[in-house]
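Handout, section 3.2

Students often ask what a structure token actually looks like in practice. Rather than define it abstractly, here is a full record for ATP-binding protein. The first block is the sequence as you would receive it.
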Amino acid sequence: MVVENLHDNTLEIIENCLDLLTGEKEPSYKKFLNHCYEWIGKRRSMYSSKSDLRQLLNALMKYVNNVNDSLPFNRFAKKYKRYDKLNIRQLTRLRLLYETMKSWNFSTNIFMVEYEKLTDIERCQHYIVYKTINICAVYPEYRDYLDKKDNGWNNTGLVFNTSVITEVVEQIKIDTTHVTLKLRQCLNFIDQRQKEDCNIFEFLSDANLQYKLGNDFKGCLLVRFDNLKSYYKKSPFPLDLLPPPIYKTDILYQSERYENTYIPYKYLSSGEKQLLNNFGALIYHLRNLDSVTDNKRLYENINVFFEEIELYFHPEYQRIVVKMLVEKLHAIDFHHIKRINITFVTHSPFILSDIPLCNVLFLKGGKPVTEKMQENTFGANIHGMLRNGFFLPSLPIGEFAHDKINRLFERLNGYKLDSRSQKQKEWFYSNIMRIGEPYLREQLMKLYNMHYPTYDNDRY
């Protein structure tokens, strides 16, 4: 993950914030503003001397330089309130960044140095500051908290209440839910670096494996998950101890067939990626919901919908996907979730063969159909279920052939045929024998023999 610094991305990171700015005469704040002023100065083509942003900075610099308080901030704010709020927000965001850094006891220098020149600890601090602000903007429990505190501003909207950000930071420090997971990874990384004076991921990086993989992973840290678990000796392994989001990460999968072969995620097949993405996304969100500790928002009952889960799946994956899903869910030690209801929207008979008929709802045009399969779907022969025209849309065949085969099933299933008509017998037989898919042909022949039991089928 790459986090850009203030110089690279000032305008984008400052748009959504509070309404008005306050000033402060602390030397560190003045230094912070000086850097912002220098940054604007290097972009003369974007910000002329008459731009709102430059005028606001000029006035603010004049205010913080005034030792005798001859220019009260109320006068400053009142005068410049008429300017475009976006520009005021930009300066307000600078103040919010500054207060957040102070509350975390971080140096403001982390925003004054090019990101590539920051140390690993400084990059983590950089991320923590932005993540703190993002948490306050995104998650209701923190957004509601700020609302109750007048968003950190007094009721006139002019003077910033610095204690509010400090209170939010203290609340974040004791939050162990999914909301603060990546932030906790950064804090744990900083703590480990300061205690042991080494980067644990550099320490555990497998140089031999890196040599075997060649130039594709040159300069990377290759850490076996088993080694990470052995180092911390914790079971189950806490996600807080995974690498912090300052790193770009990839996952290597060891081949079951070849011991020394490792496959990067990007080289997996589309079906393998789909399988991992489906299960990974589900488990990720279930763990997040289960981590919520607010009694008003405890999630005990979960509904999960899979829309055409068989897409991109090899037939073998379709056959085992339900079993794999159940096994993965059983392996999770949920604290609050007690019941999970899963609904599959599917055309695949492979999926259906793992579902009892009483739990199946057949749809056509988005509405339930009255006619359904007579045989029980659970444990049924996958190819036997294909006699029901419901499944034919999912077959990988041409549309013309699909239509012809579907009509054969419909006529042999739902029509009363004249068993004495030799012409009709020959017509059905010749059309069935043209079908190349042996299982479809076999199912149609079974229906055919029900209507014409005396016909000589030796050729079949």
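Discussion prompt for tutorial groups: Residues 34 and 41 are 10 Å apart (CA to CA). How would you have guessed this from the sequence alone?
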